[in-house]
Structure formats: structure tokens, C-alpha cells
């Protein structure tokens, strides 16, 4: 099955909540967790579970921001980015991942997370958290 989260306006990437040094300041007050929660759309028929996150960066605005997405350990996450600026997407997981973003459309990267917990996807230059992955065993 394919889980798909589609954003219409802007792009962003993430960090492991509570992990090393890249905070966005977009967490719900006093909780340390993102303010928004989104459930992904499920599409039957794919050979393996996959989550797709569409991110857009446009004139400093990032979409989505602070989304919460449930995934399973080992599940493939695909991030597709359209951007009008350079940035760097950080995935604060074990191990961490970093992906360069350049102006353009259709940029895509994939990764999986092997340790349960909360993993933030953060854009380094804009300081925005795109999503927090709630990684279940």
C-alpha cells in the first residue's frame, strides 16, 4: 500500500524531535511535538508500504509544516521537493540522513528508519520542521 501526504503550497524537511541541535520552534507549546497531525491517505495494491511526502518551498514559505505521520520501522519514505531556493533536508534518525535541495521541481529522495521513535524532517536553512514521523515497531 502507498500512503501519500500531499502539500499544495510550500516545502520543508525534518529532525528527530528532541535529537541533536536542529530545532524549528514550530512545536506545540510545552510539548516538544509538532502542532499539527495528519493521517496519510492509503492506496491499496502496492507491493510494499510506502509513504510519500510532497514538500514545496516557495518564497520562504514551506508546505507542509509540523505534520505528524505514522510509519512502521523499515517502511520506505519518499520525499518529493519543489523549491525556489537552496536548502538542506535533515532526517534526524538513527542513522541521520541529509539531502541537498536546489531550486527546481521534481527532486526526490528515499530513506527508511530502522529505530522506533519520533523522527523529525527539518529544513536547515528555513528552520522549519516539515513533518515528524511516528515510527512504530
In short:
The chain is mainly β and 137 residues long. 0% of the residues lie in helices and 50% in strands.
SSE topology string: EEEEEEEEEEE
Portion of residues in helices?
A: under 10%
Quote the beta fraction: over 45%
pLDDT below 50 for ≥5 consecutive residues: which ranges?
1-21, 24-47
Number of H/I helices: 0
Anisotropy-based shape? globular
Mean pLDDT: 76
Number of strands: 11
State the separation between the terminal residues, measured CA to CA: 18 Å
- Computed CA radius of gyration, to the nearest angstrom: 13 Å
The SS-based structural class is mainly beta
Q: Characterize the biggest β-sheet.
A: 6 strands, mixed
Summary keywords:
11 strands, five-stranded mixed β-sheet, globular, six-stranded mixed β-sheet, 137 residues, single chain, mainly beta
Structure commentary:
The chain has strands at 2-5, 41-43, 50-58, 61-63, 67-72, 76-83, 87-91, 97-101, 104-112, 117-123, 128-136. The protein is built from no helices and eleven strands. The model is unreliable at 1-21 and 24-47 (pLDDT under 50). The radius of gyration is 13 Å and the shape is globular. Strands 1, 2, 3, 4, 6 and 9 form a six-stranded mixed sheet that branches. It is mostly beta strands.
List the helices and strands and how they pair.
Layout: E1 2-5, E2 41-43, E3 50-58, E4 61-63, E5 67-72, E6 76-83, E7 87-91, E8 97-101, E9 104-112, E10 117-123, E11 128-136
Parallel strand pairs: 1-3, 3-6, 5-11
Antiparallel strand pairs: 1-2, 3-4, 6-9, 7-8, 7-10, 10-11
Amino acid at each position: 500500500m502507498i500512503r501519500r501526504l500531499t502539500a499544495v503550497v510550500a516545502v520543508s524537511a525534518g529532525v528527530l524531535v528532541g535529537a541533536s541541535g536542529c530545532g524549528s520552534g514550530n512545536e506545540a507549546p510545552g510539548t516538544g511535538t509538532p502542532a499539527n497531525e495528519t493521517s496519510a491517505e492509503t492506496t491499496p495494491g502496492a507491493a510494499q508500504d510506502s509513504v510519500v511526502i510532497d514538500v514545496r518551498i516557495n518564497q520562504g514559505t514551506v508546505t507542509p509544516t509540523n505534520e505528524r505521520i505514522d510509519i512502521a520501522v523499515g517502511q520506505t519514505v519518499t520525499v518529493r521537493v519543489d523549491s525556489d531556493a537552496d536548502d538542506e533536508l535533515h532526517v534526524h534518525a538513527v542513522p541521520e540522513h541529509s539531502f541537498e535541495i536546489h531550486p527546481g521541481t521534481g527532486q526526490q529522495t528515499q530513506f527508511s528508519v530502522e529505530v522506533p521513535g519520533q523522527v523529525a524532517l527539518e529544513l536547515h536553512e528555513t528552520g522549519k520542521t516539515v513533518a515528524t514521523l511516528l515510527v512504530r515497531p
